[in-house]
C-alpha cells in the first residue's frame, strides 16, 4: 500500500514529523517524515491519497472524551436553557429535548457511518469525492467545505462568548450582583480566552491526548454532583416543583401564537448542544484504528449527551423555582441563577466556574478540530493561501499556523458584539444550521448516487431510514433556527442568521464561478491521481516509440 504514496507528492505534502523512506513507482525513493508508518497511515496514503503527517496518539478513552467534550452538555445547557423556558416553560425543556434529541441521534449515526468508511481529517467534506459523480464533486465539496468551516468558526466563537459570560457571571455572584459586566468587558475576556485556546492547541498531539482523557471524567463528576446537590437542597430553598409542573406546565412568553408553534423553539437548546458531530472525524488522522474508534466515539458520545441531557433538564425543571425570576436574572444566565438560588453564593460560584471549565473543554477540542479542518481543506486548495496553513511545526507535529488563523477569525467574528449583541447572536445561530447542512449534503449523496461502500461501523438495513430522517429533521429544525424567537419582531430581537448564511453562500458561490472552479478539483483521490500518473507515463512512452519509429523509417 505504501508504494503508491509517490503520486501524492504532486500536492506537495511536506513538513511532517520524523523520517521514513518508502520506495515508490519506478524505484524512486520518497521520504515520508513520520516516526513510524502504521496500518492506518498506509491506508491514509494508498486509499485516500494523503501523506501521513500526524502522530496517532488517541485511543478509545481519549477519542470518546473528545467526542463528549464537543457537546459540552453541562455548560451548553447552562447557556441555552432560556430558549425552551421562553418558548413553553418546563414542558418545552423536557419534551423538546426528548423529541429533538432523537432527530439529532439520526444525524450522529449517519455521520458515524460515513466517518467509518472514509476516516480522514477532512471529515464529511472528503466523503463527497467517494459518494458523488466525478463531475459533481468540485462544486458539492466546495459548498460542503465552506458550510462546515463557517459552522465550526461560528461554534467556537459562540462557545468562547459563552465562556466569557459564565466567568463574568461567577464574578458577579461573588460581588452579590453589584458588578454587572458590560459588552466591552465580555468581548475583552472572550478575546483573552480565545488566545488561551490557541496556546493550548499549540501543544503536540501527545499532550492534547493526555489532557483530553480527563475531560469526560471531570464532566460526568460535575454533572452528577450538581444534579444530586440541586435535588437535595431545592426543598430547603423553596424552589422545588411537582412532577405535574415539570412535565405538563406550558408557559408561552415568546409572543408567538399558537402556543404549539412557540413550543417548538425549545428544539434550539438541543440542536446547539448535540451538533458538530464530525469534529471527531477531523482528528481521525490522530486516532489509532480510526475507522472503528471514531464512529464508535461519535455515536456513544451523542447517546450519552442525549440521555444525560434529558435527565439534567428534568433536574433543572424540578429545582428552578419561579420561571419569571430566573429569566429576569441580573446576570442573564438562568441556570447560574438556579445554582445561586438553590445552593447559595458559594455553591453557585463553584458550579458556575465548573460550567466555565467545561465550556473551555469544548473550545479546546473544537479548536483542535477546526485547525485540522483548515489543514485538510488547505491541502486540497479549498482555502486561500493554502500552502501556508498546511505547514506542520516540527517541534509539535501540529499545524500551528492553521490554529492561529482559526483563533483570529473566532475573535474577529465576536467583535461584532461590540456593535450589537443581536447581530452576534445571529452568527451563533448559523452554527448549527451550517454544520448540519454540511452533513446532509454527503448523506444525500450517499442515498441518491449509490456509490457508498460501508466501513466496519454501519447500520445495515436501518441505514436508509435513519439517513432519510436525518435529512428531514435537519430541514425542519433549520426553519426554526432562522425564525425570530420572540414577537413582535424588532431590530433588537431580529434573528439575522438567514442574512449571514445567505451572504456566506452567495459569496462562496460567486467566488466559485469567478475563480474557484478554475483551480479547485475537489478532495484528492489517490486512485485518480495514480491513474493520471500512469496515463501520463504511457503517453510519454508512446510519444517516444512513435518518434523512434519515425526516425528509423527516415534512416531506412
From TrEMBL:
Q: Name one GO cellular component term.
A: membrane
Keywords (alphabetical) are: Membrane, Transmembrane, Transmembrane helix, Transport
Note the topology in the membrane.
Multi-pass membrane protein
InterPro entries listed in its UniProt record: AA/rel_permease1
Listed transmembrane segments: 58-86, 92-115, 135-155, 187-208, 214-234, 296-321, 349-371, 392-417, 423-449, 461-482, 494-514
The cross-references to PANTHER family, in alphabetical order and at most eight, read: AMINO-ACID PERMEASE 2, AMINO-ACID PERMEASE BAT1
Origin, by domain of life?
Eukaryota
Q: Which organism is it from?
A: Baudoinia panamericana (strain UAMH 10762) (Angels' share fungus)
**Cell compartment(s), UniProt:** Membrane
- GO MF annotations in UniProt: transmembrane transporter activity
Q: What is this protein called?
A: Amino acid permease/ SLC12A domain-containing protein
